[in-house]
C-alpha cells in the first residue's frame, strides 16, 4: 500500500506536477516563457539530440515545433519520490508525444527521468533525461477525412491565440 507521508509531501507533489504540466503546455503552445518556467535556471537536459542547459533546448524545441502542423505531449503515468526535508525529489514520467508534418503522423512513447528541487518554496525540474521507448509513423490522411469531428469547431493553435489563454486569463 502507498501512503502519503504528510501534507507537505502532497503539496510538493502537486507543485512538481505543475512544473511537469508547464513543460508540456509550453512546448505545445510554443510559449517559451511557460516552457522555461518548468526549470530552475541551472537545469540540464539530456535527450541525445541535445544534451546541455535547458534554455537552449527550450528555444530549439519551440523553433522546431513552429514548423509542425500539430503537436501534443501527453503525460500518462507519474511516479515521484519526494524528500521534503532536503527539498529534493525524483520522478519517472511516461509521455506520449504526437506530431504531424510532411504528410505523416508521428507517435512517440518515452519517459522523462527527472530530478526536482524546491528553492524558496518553488519546485521545478533541475535535470531531465529523456528515455525513448517506441514510435509509430503513419501517413497523414487529413484532419477529419470521415467527418467524425466536424462539429468540433474550436481549434487549438501553437501560439498565444489558443483559446486556453483567453479562458485561463479571465478573472
Description:
- The protein has 171 residues and is an alpha+beta fold.
- Helices cover 27% and strands 43% of the residues.
- The chain contains four helices and six strands; from the N terminus they run ααββαββββα.
- It has a six-stranded mixed sheet with strand order 2-1-6-5-4-3.
- The longest helix has 22 residues, at 7-28.
- The chain starts with 6 loop residues before the first helix and ends with a helix.
Query: Whole-number radius of gyration?
Result: 17 Å
* Strand tally: 6
Spatially, the strands of the biggest sheet line up as: 2-1-6-5-4-3
Largest sheet: 6 strands, mixed
Q: How many DSSP helices?
A: 4
Give the uncertain stretches in residue-range form: none
Architecture blueprint of SSEs:
Blueprint: H1 7-28, H2 32-36, E1 39-46, E2 51-53, H3 54-65, E3 70-83, E4 88-101, E5 104-119, E6 122-139, H4 163-169
Parallel strand pairs: 1-6
Antiparallel strand pairs: 1-2, 3-4, 4-5, 5-6
